[in-house]
Amino acid sequence: MTFKELGIAAPILKALEAQGYENPTPIQEQAIPILLKGKDLLGVAQTGTGKTAAFGIPILHHIYQNNSGLGKRKIKALVVTPTRELAIQIGDSFTAYGKFTGIKNTVIFGGVKQGKQTDELRKGVEILVATPGRLLDLMNQGFVSLRDLEFVVLDEADQMLDMGFIHDVKKIIAKLPPKRQSLFFSATMPKTIVELSQKILGDFEQVTIKPQQATAEKVEQGIYFVAKGDKVKLLVHLIEEKQTKAVLVFSRTKHGANKIVKLLDKAEINAAAIHGNKSQTARQNALNDFKDGKLTVLVATDIAARGIDIDELSLVVNYDLPNVPETYVHRIGRTGRADASGVALSFCDGEERPYLKDIQKLIKQTIPVITDHPYVDDGSRKNEPDADERPPRQNNRPKNQNNRNPRSKNRNRNPRN
Ligand code: AMP
User: Fold this and answer.
1) Does the global pTM surpass 0.70?
2) pLDDT for the residue 338
3) 32, 240, 277, 359 - which has most CB atoms within 10 Å?
4) Residue range(s) in the chain whose domain bears CATH number 3.40.50.300
5) What is the CATH number of domain 3-209?
6) CATH topology of domain 213-389
7) What is the predicted pLDDT for the residue at 307?
């Protein structure tokens, strides 16, 4: 199947070619025909599957085909997404895919002054990408009218709920015109999300792209048993050993993320953190520096990182194992995107072993245990305090020399149960 066979308008095909997209991904192949037929869509899929193009292409196609080019631009499509980073990324995708269509989009999100955003809205756009709070705010101030809306996309619905946006989302749904095409995307489908989807979807078709596929097929995974206090040293060791240029490190907490950056700085590894307590500018700068190769390590909390699309990200490190197993799938989906393959390594201390069990149950795999490293936790240090504040030295001798086999450069894969 090619994009041309899906019946996409020529200027969009040209843009996809410029992006280097040769064939549609499974979600695109399934979702695009449904959307071109004018039906609503429930997409159960995580980011990394190509879902932005799955909704972006048919929306652009429809607006392009029906565009008279006359009069002021009116908002025809609205995409609501939980985080600023995701919003910016989706806006960039619309710009790229719509490059030759003359269709304009803009992105609105909180945490920054509204002036620039309202200027863009005044000039007129056909596509608006927004986070829920700022959208409601600008609607209430009269800067956004949804009167002419033809498409609405609720993206990452489960994340939106996790972040406490449920009331905002319901208020937005209440203001949508009744005649519209609705798209609802969520990586997981707990009961609350099913209920929310019923509020917005009419006659819909469902496309499910199982997260397990992304995990099993593309991402090489490994687990390191390590005491909490040794995690930073192990991280430094891995970065040096693997000579990795771009590592995305996940931390469960904002405080933890800051602490990791501080310790990496001391080891002279360029790192920055992105999380909810950082200003929007700081987050965007860190992301740009990481994309430009100026930073080796980006440390992120789940909410800040979800959906972030970084090309050629070859290594993801779960510094902390997530207590929600689905989060593991989202995290490792940051590597091995679309056509690339990637590696996801996880650190597991004594207290986190139950989380590992849940994760393995969800992904229906036993993650190989890597024992060829200097900080193997034999379980005796379970109750040690959090990572020590001393900087890990560059040339510190491995403590557990016995665990190292100097001849073995490759990982020793221990087929544990
Ligand atoms: P998404 O799930 O929308 O965040 O997309 C994940 C990544 O896949 C992004 O880097 C897209 O640019 C890329 N991508 C999306 N569709 C395709 C395609 N058909 N071929 C190659 N790459 C794609």
Assistant:
1) no
2) 54
3) 359
4) 3-209, 213-389
5) 3.40.50.300
6) Rossmann fold (3.40.50)
7) 55
